[in-house]
Amino acid sequence: MRRRHTVTAVYLAAVVLGAGACGGTNDAAGKSKTGTGDASAVRALRDAREAANAKQTVTTKGTIAQGSDGSVSVTADSSFRYGPAPVVHTTTTFSGLAEPGNAAEAPKIELIATETRLYSKVLEGGGMIPADALSKQWTPRPAPSAVPGTSDRPRPPSPTADAHPALQDPVVALAVLAAAPDVHKAGDEPLDGVQTAHYQGAYPASALKTATAKSLGLTEGQYQRLAVDFLDNRQTSVRFDIWLGADRLPVQMSAKSVYNRTEDPVFTTEAPDPAYEDAVPEPLAFTVQIRLTGWGSPVDAAEPPADQVRTR
Question: Which of 97, 104, 237, 279 is the most exposed place for a label (fewest CB within 10 A)?
Fold first, then answer.
C-alpha cells in the first residue's frame, strides 16, 4: 500500500502549503467510436442521464476500497449540482489510514470541483499534518486535466487521485456505461424492496483515445475528471454496474478498476511516470460503491465564497 500512503501524504501537504497542480484544457481530438453494446441498454442509460440532468441535484454516500485486497478504505459524502457548469462537493475520509483504535483522526479532505477550478481543504491530517496547520480556508488551483506532460517532467498524481470524483458522479457513470462496448442489461433485481433494472459493462482506457466530452454527452469539466482518473490510477478499464429505479434515476452504482497487462492504460501521448512504469498495478486498484438519494433536493454544491478562499 506504499502508493496509497504516499499519495495521501503528498496531497495533504500540498493542500496545506497551497501548492499548485497541473492545469489547462484537454487537447484530445478525433471522433468517438460507436459502442457495440446492446442498443436497448444504451437507450435506457441515455434516458437515465437525461432524467438525472433534469433533476439537477443529487446526494450520494459512497465507500471506496483501495488496493488489490481492499484493505485501505475510504468513505465519501458528496453532492452534485448539474447544468451548464456542474459542481461537485465531496468530503473524503481515509478511515483505512487511521491508527488502530483512533478512527476519529483519519485523514479527511474536502473538495469542491467546478468546470475550471478545484478547491480543497484538509480537515484532519491523520497525524501527517500538525493540527495548527490544517486548512481554515479553501485552497484554489486549476482543475486537474489530461494535458500531456513533458518527457522530462512526468505527471504526478492529481489531488483527486484517491477521491475518484468522476466515478462518484452518476451522470458521468451513465454516460460512460452507455458508451461501453459490452454494455447490457443484467436483469431486473429488487433493491431494498424496490424493483430496479441492473445494467453493466466495462469502459476501456483505449476508448478515451478517440472520445471527447461532446461524444460522451459530458461537460468539459466532467470529461477531464474522468480522463484524469484513468491517468492517475492507470486502470485499463473500469467495470460499471448501475441500478435504475422505475423513475429511470440511479439508486445504486459501482465502479471497479480492471488491470490487464496486455493493454495500454495510458490514453494520451504523455510520458509515463517512471515510478509506476515497472510497478505491479494492484496497489492502485479500487472499487467505488455509491448509494444515491435526494434527486432534485437542495444540496450544498457551489463555488466557495471569495472571503473563504486563499489569495496566496
Answer: 104
How far is 194 from 283, CA to CA, in rounded Å?
A: 36
Distance CA 215, CA 207 (A): 11
Give the position of cell 476500497: 65
Strand partners, 28: none
Half-sphere CA count of 39, side-chain side, radius 13 A? 0
- Residue 40 makes CB contacts below 8 A (sequence gap 6+) with 185
Give the span between the Cα atoms of 61 and 29, in whole angstroms. Answer: 35
Separation between Cα atoms, residue 286 and residue 302, nearest integer Å:
28
* Domains within the chain, CATH numbers bracketed: 2-20+40-296 (2.50.20.20)
Angstrom distance (rounded) from CA 35 to CA 110: 36
pTM higher than 0.85 for the full model?
Answer: no
Give residue-wise pLDDT tens across range 168-202: 999 999 999 999 999 999 999 999 888 999 999 99
Helix (H) or strand (E) holding 296: none
**Per-residue model confidence as pLDDT tens digits over 118-170:** 999 888 876 666 776 677 789 999 998 876 544 444 566 787 888 899 999 99
CB 59 within 8 A of CB 250: no
Pairing between strand 57-66 and 108-113? Answer: unpaired
Backbone CA torsion sign across 210, 215, 220, 226: negative
Task: Tell me the three-class secondary structure of 115-165, residue by residue.
Answer: CCEEEEEEEECCCCCCHHHCCCCEEEEECCCCCCCECCECCCCCCCCCCCH
Helix, strand, coil tally for the chain in percent (to 5): 30, 30, 40
Q: Which amino acid is at 282?
A: E
Residues 216 and 218: their CA atoms lie apart, in Å, by 6
